[in-house]
Automatic annotation (TrEMBL):
Residues 60-155 form the Methyltransferase domain. The keyword Transferase applies. This is Class I SAM-dependent methyltransferase. One of its GO terms (molecular function) is methyltransferase activity. One of its GO terms (biological process) is methylation. The lineage of its organism: Bacteria, Bacillati, Actinomycetota, Actinomycetes, Kitasatosporales. Pfam families: Methyltransf_25. Coiled coil: none annotated. The keyword Acetylation does not apply.
């Protein structure tokens, strides 16, 4: 799962026994060498779909980490892009690794909690990749309301969501075991480390987005293939703040 440049087992254990913020501060220098970084195939597929939905002037990457999503935004936004994350370590690494490209949109890095975004309605597009497991279900309505509040009328909030693992499959049992272990860890140890894979269900998420004021559509990310029953392996959720 990990390259030689990735974290050691000891480093992962120390991270897992820390808070979410401290854990990612520790992991930041090696994060891009772990399987936790969003795969390039997903980023490329989302980029292609957003290009067809654009153009956009300004974009926000919610829980940006080291900036994989900002790479998407720089390809589909014309003026400026902003990454927001509460881990100072992730922001520092992302800022240092941002390539200098002539005529690229201005890039800003902001340390803040996504549950209290420090912006007005100034963005045309918001994205997020792989961060929703760090929010327990009761926090999602507030998170979605925050994203809604920073989008201009007609602005879009887009994020990929992978089809759920089939019950009984190896992936199903692996995710169940991970979430169970995390719940046990959080019951016995403080500070808590919130990361769950099985709490982000499409039907619930869609309903919560609508309640936050979004109009929601789904687009299949065809480049990522389809399952045996013909359903997409991955969809892009596109939530629009009505004009």
């Amino acid at each position: 799962m990990f390259t030689p440049q990735g974290p050691t087992l000891r480093e992962l254990v120390v991270q897992a026994l820390s808070s979410v913020e401290r854990g990612y501060d520790l992991l930041a220098p090696k994060f891009d060498h772990t399987p936790y970084r969003t795969p390039a195939a997903v980023l490329d597929s989302v980029t292609g779909t957003l290009r067809r939905l654009g153009p956009f002037d300004s974009g926000l990457d919610v829980c940006c980490g080291t900036g994989a999503g900002l790479g998407v935004l720089r390809q589909v936004c014309r003026e400026r892009v902003t990454g927001v994350d509460f881990s100072a370590g992730m922001l520092t690494v992302g800022r240092a690794r941002t390539p200098v490209v002539p005529d690229a949109p201005r890039t800003h890095w902001v340390r803040a909690d996504a549950r209290a975004l420090p912006f007005g309605p100034v963005f045309d597009l918001a994205v997020s990749f792989g961060a929703f497991g760090h929010f327990v279900p009761r926090e999602r309505p507030g998170l979605f309301a925050q994203v809604h509040s920073v989008l201009r009328p007609g602005g879009r909030f887009a994020f990929p969501i992978v089809a759920p693992a089939r019950p009984g499959s190896r992936l199903y049992w692996s995710l169940l075991a991970f979430d169970t272990a995390m719940r046990v860890r959080n019951a016995l140890w403080r500070p808590r480390f919130v990361m769950y894979y099985r709490t982000f269900r499409l039907a619930d998420v869609r309903e919560e987005l609508v309640r936050a004021g979004f109009e929601v559509e789904l687009q299949a990310l065809e480049e990522l293939g389809r399952r045996a029953d013909g359903s997409p392996r991955c969809r892009l959720v596109v939530a629009t703040r009505p004009s």
